[in-house]
Amino acid sequence: MAWTDLIHPKTTDELFLYRLSRLRSAAGRRVIRICEGEFGITRREWGILGLLAKHDGILSSQLAERAQLDRARTSRAVSGLVAKGLVLREARPGDRREVVLSLTEAGRAVNGAMFPRVAQINRELLSVLGESELAALDAALVRLQAQADAMAPGPDAPLANRRRGGRSPRRAS
Hints:
- With 173 residues, this protein is an alpha+beta fold.
- The chain has a domain at 42-147: Winged helix-like DNA-binding domain superfamily/Winged helix DNA-binding domain (Arc Repressor Mutant, subunit A).
- The protein is built from seven helices and five strands; from the N terminus they run αααβααββααββ.
- The protein is globular.
């Protein structure tokens, strides 16, 4: 495939986002097996654990933003982790609508056991690239993330309605 096919794709297989999705799916299968098979958590829950390991004591709304998930998905993942005894959810003093999240000792242990194994998968995947290729990939990912953030739909964009297979009208505020 020529680099121009990335810019002007003719088939789904040539779409950059499709290729990234296939890469994530193929490499992520091992991560999913570790998460689900050995630790009884989903990949999303493990992502939440990893974020809480770095940002312990964060508000649930801030966690949703960092995880780039809507609040409902974040809440479901957190509820699952709370039920498994891996995350502690405490109402913020003075405003019970805000919830502070932190890892339990068990949550720290799960994250501590999983992270080195997932980091090894990461190293194995990237082992086919040389040092200059890794530096170029990192720089490209930074630029692509900035572009994706700039392209993100604004608050007035129509919402998706997957049940109906299309868009739903935006509710008036």
